[in-house]
TrEMBL record:
It comes from Oceanospirillum sediminis. This is STAS/SEC14 domain-containing protein. It comes from the Bacteria. SUPFAM superfamilies: SpoIIaa-like. Pfam families: SpoIIAA-like.
Length: 122
């Protein structure tokens, strides 16, 4: 399930993940991201992961199609907030693989720092 959040950062698409992500939810998130890119020329992502119960296969296809069509160059900052240690390691790896996107992970108690990171235009 995906629940949208308001973190007060205009360029950000913020959401909480808990459980399984459906194709419809993925479609909606990607449409929202594309809308922010159209509006601002770039987007920031705030992903709060409580639990991850999997992603429907069709949802993954939807994401792959989006990335092929849109690319990742307009995704400038990504924060992942979670207490899952393996996700922190994934974010570290992705940060090295995607030099034009700033990726950081935070524990749940550091939500304010994550929002500050996105709000800082530097």
């Amino acid at each position: 399930m995906i629940e949208y959040l308001d973190i007060g950062v205009e360029k950000a698409v913020a959401y909480r993940i808990s459980g399984k992500i459906s194709q419809g939810e993925m479609h909606d998130v990607l449409k929202t991201i594309a809308g922010r890119i159209d509006q601002f020329g770039e987007v920031y992502l705030y992903q709060e992961v409580e639990s991850l119960g999997g992603v429907e296969f069709e949802a993954m296809l939807e994401k792959i199609k989006f990335l092929i069509r849109q690319g990742i160059s307009d995704i400038h900052k990504v924060v992942v907030i979670t207490d899952k240690q393996w996700l922190h390691r994934v974010v570290e790896l992705e940060d090295k693989l995607l030099p034009h996107t700033k990726l950081c992970s935070f524990i749940m108690e550091e939500k304010d720092q994550a929002v500050s990171f996105l709000a800082d235009d530097g």
